[in-house]
Design brief:
The structure holds 2 protein chains of 2 kinds. By secondary structure, chain A is mostly helical. Helix content of chain A is 30%, strand content 5%. Classes of the chains: A mainly alpha, B alpha/beta. The complex binds iron/sulfur cluster (2 copies).
């Protein structure tokens, strides 16, 4: 009720004052100008080329936002710029794997015939079985780490290098910023998700699902109710 | 609607005498002192003319009411945010916080944080990545306190048939398993045009472009004429036909004056790149919520930013480029 009265008063004020106010509007030149508008219709991309600074001194930072997040400095010689990726190893529930995998796989299989199995349900839906099997990525001699195609050791924290061996375009985009995404903030320093943060390495494709919402109000309008 | 829990009353009731609010007529007519005095005496008169204005520091119901009236009065006559001094900005923000506490018994935090130097925000949307999940829409509605009853959404996700961009035949209210066979998804929202036609047409300058490129609206200066809505070539603006309703427990209390603070009936609103987040270095809620990484946000003036990498290395395009509006929102494909 209160609202309605105030609205009416307001409307009245505008009716009376509007012509007056707009007529003196250009006169308030002491106030903030529009810095970008002045440049007219030069394309924004063109403007950017000339506007670049060597260094930008940011007041905002992602430092604080990512302070409590476990991360490692990415080992990416392809990039001149330093950035962080989310830690992976500490996220694996039953790490270190050698807690159970203390003997070679074959032996373990033989001796644990009637014991409860761990991760028995993992199904590899990633490339074809011709190209991929467990040991393509996992080091069967040391299951606490991964290995590259040529057999070099790789920690789980840097598993993105594993992915990069086949997915070179995605890797390039990930380093640049067109694939994957930032954690916490847009400002430097840069912390990004690792490949396996979003893709299950055993079944990396995104799954079909239902949308998070349906706008029932819009539906009503469309149906003319 | 008001929650009158006596335990939730604010602790201070002692601000009534020292109003120093700027306002529209001040800004235009430059007669600050005389009008302020007039306002003060008017306010005093309004408050029952008993001379109680300066007397009360005890916390009683009538004090609260009095405070509230005074605050409402000062709020009503404040000026256009764009023309306020920093002091006036912090004063109005403080009034809004107090008023919310008086009305709802809960504290909110309204920021008046300004644009940062050497920052111009830009956004890129990867149409090969978007799967139509709509997690961004949910995040946006919650973050930005959009009206739940009309189900207002700043973001629309358009489901289009593979082959070409066609908004006519696109479906933006789908509800089936996504992504649908043979379709792709394209998100739209306010593009924060560098030459925004919506700003040019506003008769009261209630909407403008900030120095960091965010196009904002002063919800208290907007008269609801909807010129801007008509002028926007991208369907970027949303209008409050009724008083927005948000369940108290769902209100995002972390607010910005030009962003997600609570709106009222008859005013325009739209995406602000989550100004309350972005000016603190955070990503907008939609960017954070997107599970596919289709949304990229950053500083266009920083050659090291992701958005600049995308502009330099991907084939980007914008909608209706021939209009010269220069949206700071690009689309690209993998
Ligand atoms: S998209 Fe529309 S509302 Fe947003 S700045 Fe451009 S013209 Fe204005
Ligand atoms: S609706 Fe509000 S912001 Fe839009 S043109 Fe009218 S007064 Fe300006």
């Amino acid at each position: 009720m209160n609202n309605r009265v105030s609205h009416m008063i307001r409307a009245l004020i505008y009716v009376v004052l509007l012509p007056f106010a707009t007529s003196i509007m250009p006169g308030c030149s002491g106030h903030e100008e529009h810095p970008h508008q002045e440049k007219g219709h030069h394309s924004i991309v063109e403007q950017l080329r000339h506007a670049d600074k060597d260094t930008i001194e940011y007041e905002v930072s992602t430092e604080e936002l990512m302070a409590d997040i476990k991360k490692v400095l990415a080992q990416v010689p392809e990039s001149e710029k330093e950035f962080y990726v989310l830690e992976r190893q500490s996220m694996i529930k039953s790490y270190p794997c050698s807690n159970c995998h203390s003997v070679p796989l074959e032996e373990l299989k033989a001796e644990s015939k009637d014991k409860k199995k761990a991760h028995w349900n993992i199904e590899l839906v990633h490339a074809g079985s011709d190209a991929m099997e467990c040991s393509t990525c996992h080091d069967t001699n040391n299951l606490d780490q991964l290995k590259t195609i040529t057999g070099k050791a790789l920690t789980f924290d840097h598993s993105y290098k594993q992915c990069a061996q086949c997915h070179s375009q995605q890797y390039k985009d990930w380093i640049g910023g067109a694939h994957g995404k930032r954690v916490a903030g847009w400002a430097p320093p840069r912390l990004i998700y690792s490949c396996a943060s979003c893709h299950n390495p055993h079944s990396p494709a995104f799954k079909p699902r239902w949308p998070a919402r349906l706008n029932t109000q819009k539906l009503k309008e469309l149906n003319g109710k | 609607m008001r929650d009158n829990d006596p335990n939730q009353k604010p602790s201070s009731g002692c601000n009534s005498g020292n109003c120093s609010c700027g306002d529209g007529y001040d800004q235009k007519l430059n007669k600050k002192t005389s009008r302020r005095n007039m306002l003060k005496s008017l306010t005093a008169g309004l408050l029952a003319g008993t001379g109680m204005v300066n007397s009360a520091c005890s916390v009683t119901a009538s004090d609260d009411e009095k405070d509230q009236k005074q605050l409402e009065w000062e709020e009503f006559f404040k000026g256009n945010y764009r023309l306020m001094t920093d002091k006036e900005k912090s004063e109005t923000v403080e009034r809004l916080e107090k008023l919310y506490e008086l009305n709802n018994g809960k504290k909110i935090n309204v920021s008046a944080q300004g644009a940062e130097k050497d920052v111009l925000y830009g956004y890129a949307f990867n149409i090969s990545k978007c799967q139509g999940y709509m997690d961004c829409v949910n995040a946006c509605v919650q973050e930005n306190n959009q009206d739940r009853s009309s189900q207002m959404q700043y973001i629309r996700i358009h489901e289009m048939e593979n082959g070409r961009i066609n908004f006519e035949d696109a479906e933006d209210n789908f509800f089936h398993e996504v992504p649908a066979e043979g379709h792709f998804y394209m998100g739209t929202q306010c593009y924060h045009c560098e030459n925004p036609p919506c700003v040019d047409v506003c008769p009261v300058e209630a909407t403008w472009k900030e120095k960091d490129g965010i196009v904002v609206i002063d919800y208290d200066w907007c008269i609801g004429c909807r010129y801007c809505m008509a002028a926007c070539p991208y369907d970027g603006r949303r209008f409050n036909w009724a008083t927005p309703e948000i369940p108290e427990e769902e209100v995002n209390k972390n607010q910005h004056y030009l962003g997600n603070r609570l709106r009222k009936k008859g005013v325009m609103e739209k995406c602000t790149f989550c100004i309350q987040r972005s000016r603190n270095g955070k990503n907008p809620a939609c960017v954070e919520a997107c599970p596919t990484g289709a949304r990229i946000f950053g500083n266009l003036l920083d050659p090291d930013s992701e958005i600049r990498w995308v502009l330099a290395n991907k084939k980007v395009f914008r909608l209706k480029e021939d209009l010269g509006t220069e949206p700071k929102f690009w689309y690209f494909m993998d």
